[in-house]
Amino acid sequence: MFIAILLLLAGATVLTVGAEAAIRGAARFAVARGISPFLLGALLFGVDVESLGAALVAAGRGQTSIAAGEAFGTVVFLLSVGFGAATLLARKPIEAPSDEMVLLPAAALLAGAVTLTDQVVTRFEGTALLLAYGVYVWLVVVEGRGAQARPRSIEREAAERPGLPPLAMLLIGLAAVYGGASLLVEGGIRVLSHTSLAAGFVGAAIVGALASLDEVFLEVLPVRRGMPELATGNLFGTVAAFSTGVLGLAALVHPLVLDSAATTAFLAAAVLYTIVATSFIARGHAGKLTGLLVLAAYGGWLTYALRR
Between residues 156 and 189, which one has the greater pLDDT? Predict the structure, then answer.
């Protein structure tokens, strides 16, 4: 247990440093290349390497409910704990991206829902999900080409302590994020190795949450530093990626058969996305009330899933 605690503490430290460096590097890279910060958030941070790896490994070992639960648990954790923490710690409400970028992940969730109607995802369906994610990526790139970075906050960040080249800082930061999250996952596995819960719940609530702890930092830090575009890009990019692309890749590794706990995690992800998207569309921003709602919904899902 002592080693597990050390791993958790070391992972949190490395993760914090790595996330800070990755965000600085991303901001400077966006200015240097004229790239929309939302685009960077959606396509670079949105595909969480640790969570993707955990889902593929689980599928490869035949633990398909854990694989699917992990994918959906990543979305649930980010939309609730990650985004909830960002709204509560933000100095002001988080500004919404364009309506198109808010609503586009709904199509990804719908595609995932269609394949899950029989609680099985075949390799053919996995290929279709990958194609759906490819369409999402293309639409985000098209949107990003026409979007302009908000000059004051992004350029101020780019001007602070130049240090390493932007791309080098970004890559070093991402490597540190991966290393820190890996330590956290290893520590969590050591602590939770003796649990006897449903496979889908373990994937969603334990593996998914531990593998997604870095996402909390990648939500909170950009908001605190005045770059909400990176945070919202990461948020909606993750919803789309794990509802289609990651699920599809896992199905290609091994056809997925889901238990009821994994399916419930998908429904929780859809409900949380609806809360966040409704707030953005209706009000143009998300504040502390939205954060409290998603955190309460997360607590409700955990309570319900544990009692099943």
Answer: 189
